[in-house]
Write a structure and sequence with these properties.
This protein is of the alpha/beta class. The protein is built from 14 helices and 26 strands. A 4-stranded mixed beta sheet has the order 23-25-1-26. About 50% of the residues are buried. Bound molecules: ligand EPZ. Ligand EPZ binds near residues 169 and 380.
């Protein structure tokens, strides 16, 4: 397995190109299942999770082609997806267990074929992550769903029907699933207390380009008037706000000065505001966003994760890394996932001073971190260790790099281009 070695100390300087959003691309790709017409997606990042989604869609019957070599990427960032016929309505355990976003095929398959058999994803490294809201919403739209042998078996022989569904809890994935299902349902669907993450707006805009009738995009109430069929469409995926925020924290950690090209500060206002309170400059530029330390000082500031537009849970670990070196203390509270502090013991091994009190972590800044051999159990926890390593004394070796490869495109190349001493050590 590959490892990444980082020698801390260098301030990041220069520019980093932000890729297309992983969490927008995954549901956008699934939207192909709603139609026999082609869907062209530009700016799709080349990541392990995208490859997993391609494998899932191919076994449902989607033809996927990737244009080669755009933007210096080996395999290109434009995907053309065409699902003339659905060959299989089963999403098998072997793929779903690798990537939870696979459950997004449930709504579109039932909407198009009247049936779907999707493996339950099970728990994961950041929490139990149930799918009850996906199920309840589809049942409200007239599907029957039974659980058998670890699979959700959904049927709606006469099609789904429009309904008003109020999410009892904000869920990104359940909103995406029901939004896609509603596009082909009979009549009007109203989704209330819907998640407002920019990735949902991106999906809705693409669905509209495909011929869907959706209003309230960007708000907590989505109104969808069902249509009989969709048309071919082309769509450019939004830049990855979590990748943007991650590099912003890395730059802040090293006291550097970097322009995050394509980064959009308005997609991460809550995190940018928190960074500003810490003493980090985050300003929009003509090409993206520039991040630098205002006066050299990094102050400890509290943060609490919340659904968008609040501080994103997907930046919690990275922010905690940053706070390990701040002046003063920071209380970081996680309200979305119950088990998302798995990076804490590893940061502690690097010399961080962190104590966990229930859903909060109290981080007291320390004058220095020390390099160590570390590993993490999920994507954002892994990258938080890379951020710590950039400011640590000596070498850090990150193990289980496959987590990073799920969500960060060419991380070591992007960091090295800004002066970081980082290299990938190929498999052993
Ligand atoms: C999406 O996951 C993202 N994944 C996650 O990013 C992100 O952390 C999360 O949203 C929150 O922003 C993708 O977009 C592919 P949720 P999702 O449904 O949709 C509970 C990353 O690192 N819940 O909004 O699975 C759930 O347990 C990943 O890129 C239910 O109780 O998240 C959690 O506590 C990790 N029942 C909360 O809601 C349900 O049916 C929010 O989860 C569904 C969710």
């Amino acid at each position: 397995m590959d490892r990444i070695r980082v020698r801390g100390g260098a301030a990041l300087k220069g520019e980093i190109a932000i890729s297309g959003s992983k969490n927008a691309s995954l549901p956008l790709m699934v939207a192909t299942l709603l139609t026999d017409q082609s869907l062209v997606l530009h700016n799709v990042p080349r990541l392990a999770d995208i490859d997993t989604m391609i494998a899932l869609l191919e076994q449902h019957g989607t033809h996927v082609s990737a244009s080669p070599g755009e933007n210096g990427h080996r395999r290109g960032t434009t995907l053309t997806l065409t699902t003339r016929d659905i060959d299989s309505t089963t999403a098998p355990y072997d793929i779903v267990r690798k990537m939870r976003a696979s459950v997004l095929v449930l709504g579109p398959l039932v909407a198009r074929c009247g049936e779907a058999r999707v493996s339950l994803p099970g728990g994961c490294a950041i929490g139990t992550r149930p799918v009850d809201l996906h199920i309840a919403g589809l049942q409200a739209m007239g599907a029957t769903i039974e659980l058998d042998g670890g699979y959700m078996i959904a049927r709606a022989k006469d099609g789904l029907r429009g309904v008003r569904y109020v999410f009892p809890k904000v869920s990104v994935g359940a909103t995406e699933n029901l939004l896609m299902a509603a596009v082909l349902a009979k009549g009007e669907t109203i989704l209330d207390n819907a998640a407002r993450e920019p990735e949902i707006g991106d999906l809705a805009n693409c669905l509209v380009a495909m011929g869907a009738r959706i209003s309230g995009i960007g708000s907590e109430t989505l109104r969808i008037e069902g249509v009989d069929a969709l048309r071919p469409a082309e769509h450019v995926v939004i830049p990855d706000r979590i990748e943007t925020g991650t590099y912003a924290m890395a730059v802040a950690m090293t006291g550097g000065d970097v322009e995050l090209v394509h980064g959009r500060v308005e997609l991460l206002e809550a995190a940018a505001d928190t960074l500003r309170q810490c003493g980090v400059e985050c300003v929009a530029t003509a090409r993206g966003m520039r991040v630098s330390r205002r006066d050299g000082v990094l102050r400890g500031v509290d943060a609490m994760t919340e659904p968008f537009p609040g501080f994103p849970t997907d930046l919690q670990a990275q922010f905690m890394s940053l706070m390990t070196r701040a002046e003063g203390a920071a209380m970081i509270t996680e309200t979305i996932f119950e088990n998302r502090f798995m990076h804490v013991p590893e940061l502690s091994r690097m010399g961080a001073n962190i104590t966990i009190h229930g859903t909060s972590a109290l981080v007291r800044g320390v004058p220095k971190l020390r390099g160590a051999e570390v590993m993490a159990t999920d994507l954002r926890a892994s990258v938080s260790l890379a951020i710590a390593a950039l400011a640590a004394e000596g070498d850090t070796t990150l193990h289980r790099v496959y987590h990073l490869d799920r969500g960060y495109e060419r991380l070591e190349e992007k960091l090295a281009a800004c002066g970081a001493d980082v290299e990938r050590l190929m498999g052993r």
